[in-house]
């Protein structure tokens, strides 16, 4: 393990021989939150973690999760100078609503009392929460649109969280590049939360330590894909070693070059990639006729995935037309991902089998 | 500074409002922001904290120090308008620390160095009666030890925009902790964190390098 002593150079903590990663196909995500629920029930149902969603899905355009994380700084400037970042509040990360369950179920008020959330922060009606702006999206009528963006820690190659921690609590695991946060060393200083531009680290006010996605490393060690990836009914996910040329993951990222990291300009070199939404909706023209143009505004995608998204979408559309015209397309076959074993390859083991 | 000998029991001295403290002459120390920006040693341990420029808002610390032949006590006072609490995920609390060298060559500015450790007593407003005993051998190496082993004790009072914190420990608890011998000098340095200004870790005010203190026989 690249677990270096306190005070050791950051290069030692970043050292790894292999790297696991993901592709998430945004064209197939239906916003069902099964991934979120899988993660939550496996990792964040402990006291002090109620507000955490290491795996989360929000509607874009939108404020995202944590709220407005894109406006909170962190990461690096183009010259690699660290960009100072802000901390998230409990409201930003979704609050921890309290419900009047006792009153509704046992209060004897019949239909007069309804289930009602109360903010754990203010004690009042909530003003924001997880998925608060679900399905609002963007665009002007009649060309409104939205898509879902599942997010988790990107297990960055140049992880700012790891670089920010003065106690060397964060490190990359030697064997798979997963970024983990040692609870023994964490002092709760939250320098990592400030530094992560994706706001993928959460403070636990009960343990007074920070916590983050562990890419289900105990499962990964058993050849089982992370819970969010495995549970996804939309088959949006591929998971595996990023350097394996025989993997579908590798082919889509390196051979066909149709997968992109989110916000590459943050400079962290993320290891989770996205197939950008290539918009199967048709926009209406002013006279009400249906056009061949999509509805998703190009700036929105460029803002999320950088300028490379334009040629990637052109490539994806060309591949789709090949298929529509009855010609073969390896890209389309890979994206359909019919086969579970192809999507997860070395990590296709069944958790129930392994547990026995 | 002077650590005076006083006839008072430890329990009395642990109360920052105890009249006994009236007999001990306090001394004022100027406090300055820790030099984080353009500091290569800090860059190496956290290039992010090395960008900090808005820390170190506490400019002075008043210290009274006494011992009763068994226990060393320090009464530390500074201005903090608010007793901050951690009610939300972006909040921090006030804190204060006193540091002692564990070897002759240890430097306070770097929190010691490999082979030249320092020992600190660290008090935080949200754990007011459980001060931490800390040992470090350079930036980023600090380890909190169980306060129980060191038998650190504390008393605290926030009044009229001022903190008054007493830290106390037996003169000697073994050679992995700072030791004090009546009649022999010691060295110390101070650090203060303003919670309202999100100060924690290296984001703090400090008193500079170790200062000599006499311990009354
Ligand atoms: S489980 Fe799959 S389809 Fe459902 S929200 Fe998550 S990524 Fe999207
Ligand atoms: S996404 Fe954030 S938490 Fe995850 S490795 Fe990158 S900087 Fe660290």
TrEMBL record, chain A:
PROSITE patterns: 4FE4S_FER_2. Coiled coil: none annotated. It is found in: Cell envelope. The keyword Nucleotide-binding does not apply. Keywords: 3Fe-4S, 4Fe-4S, Electron transport, Iron, Iron-sulfur, Metal-binding, Repeat, Transport. One of its GO terms (biological process) is anaerobic respiration. The keyword Transit peptide does not apply. InterPro entries: 4Fe4S_Fe-S-bd (IPR017896). It comes from the Bacteria. One of its GO terms (cellular component) is cell envelope. Its main location: other. Residues 20-49, 177-206 form the 4Fe-4S ferredoxin-type domain. It holds the Pfam family Fer4_11. GO terms for molecular function: 3 iron, 4 sulfur cluster binding; 4 iron, 4 sulfur cluster binding; electron transfer activity; metal ion binding. Its cofactor is [4Fe-4S] cluster; [3Fe-4S] cluster. PANTHER family: NITRATE REDUCTASE BETA SUBUNIT, RESPIRATORY NITRATE REDUCTASE 1 BETA CHAIN. This is Respiratory nitrate reductase subunit beta. It comes from Immundisolibacter cernigliae.
Automatic annotation (TrEMBL), chain B:
InterPro entries: Cyt-c552/DMSO_Rdtase_haem-bd, DMSO_Rdtase_II_haem_b-bd_su. Keywords: Electron transport, Heme, Iron, Metal-binding, Transport. The keyword Transport applies. GO terms for molecular function: heme binding; metal ion binding. One of its GO terms (cellular component) is periplasmic space. Residues 18-205 form the Cytochrome c-552/DMSO reductase-like haem-binding domain. It holds the Pfam family EB_dh. This is Cytochrome c-552/DMSO reductase-like haem-binding domain-containing protein. It comes from Immundisolibacter cernigliae.
């Amino acid at each position: 393990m690249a677990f270096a002593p306190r005070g050791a150079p950051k290069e030692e903590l970043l050292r790894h021989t292999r790297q696991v990663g993901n592709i998430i196909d945004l064209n197939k995500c239906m916003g069902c939150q099964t991934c979120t629920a899988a993660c939550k029930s496996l990792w964040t149902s402990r006291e002090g973690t109620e507000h955490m969603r290491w795996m989360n899905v929000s509607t874009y355009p939108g404020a995202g999760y944590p709220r407005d994380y894109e406006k909170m700084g962190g990461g690096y400037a183009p010259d690699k100078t660290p960009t100072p970042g802000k901390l998230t509040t409990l409201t930003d990360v979704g609050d921890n609503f309290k419900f009047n369950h006792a009153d509704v179920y046992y209060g004897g008020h019949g239909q007069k009392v309804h289930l009602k959330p109360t903010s754990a922060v203010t004690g009042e009606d909530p003003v924001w929460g997880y998925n608060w702006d679900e399905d609002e999206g963007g665009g002007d009528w009649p060309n409104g649109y939205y898509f879902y963006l599942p997010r988790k820690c990107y297990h960055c190659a140049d992880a700012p969280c790891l670089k920010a921690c003065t106690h060397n609590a964060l490190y990359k695991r030697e064997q798979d590049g997963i970024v983990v946060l040692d609870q023994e060393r964490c002092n709760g200083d939250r320098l990592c939360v400030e530094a992560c531009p994706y706001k993928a680290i959460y403070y636990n006010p009960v343990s007074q330590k920070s916590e983050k996605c562990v890419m289900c490393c105990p499962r990964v060690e058993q050849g089982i894909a992370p819970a969010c990836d495995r549970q996804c009914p939309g088959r949006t996910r591929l998971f595996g070693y990023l350097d394996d040329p025989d993997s579908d993951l590798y082919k889509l990222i390196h051979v066909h070059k149709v997968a992109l990291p989110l916000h590459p300009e943050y400079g962290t070199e993320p290891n989770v990639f996205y197939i950008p939404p290539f918009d199967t909706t048709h926009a209406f023209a002013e006279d009400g006729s249906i056009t061949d143009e999509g509805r998703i505004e190009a700036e929105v995608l460029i803002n999320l995935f950088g300028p490379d998204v334009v040629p990637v979408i052109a490539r994806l559309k060309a591949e789709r037309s090949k298929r529509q015209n009855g010609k073969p397309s390896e890209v389309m076959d890979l994206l359909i991902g019919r086969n579970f074993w192809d999507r997860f390859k070395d990590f296709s083991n069944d958790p129930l089998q392994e547990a026995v | 500074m002077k650590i005076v000998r006083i006839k008072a029991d430890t329990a009395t001295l642990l109360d920052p409002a105890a009249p006994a403290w009236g007999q001990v002459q306090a001394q004022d120390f100027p406090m300055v922001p820790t030099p984080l920006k353009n500091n290569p040693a800090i860059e190496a341990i956290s290039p992010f904290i090395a960008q900090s420029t808005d820390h170190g808002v506490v400019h002075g610390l008043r210290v009274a120090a006494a011992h009763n032949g068994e226990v060393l006590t320090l009464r530390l006072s500074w201005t903090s308008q608010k007793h901050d609490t951690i009610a939300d995920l972006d909040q921090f609390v006030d804190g204060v620390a006193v540091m002692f060298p564990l070897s002759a060559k240890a430097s306070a500015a770097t929190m010691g160095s490999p082979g030249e450790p320092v020992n600190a007593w660290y008090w935080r407003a949200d754990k007011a009666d459980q001060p931490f005993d800390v040992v470090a051998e350079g930036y980023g190496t600090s380890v909190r030890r169980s306060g129980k082993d060191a038998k650190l004790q504390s008393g605290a009072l926030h009044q009229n925009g001022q903190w008054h914190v007493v830290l106390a420990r037996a003169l000697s608890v073994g050679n992995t902790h700072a030791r004090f011998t009546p009649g022999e000098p010691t060295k110390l340095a101070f650090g203060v964190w303003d919670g309202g200004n999100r100060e924690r870790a290296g984001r703090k005010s400090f008193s500079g390098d170790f200062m000599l203190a006499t311990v009354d026989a």
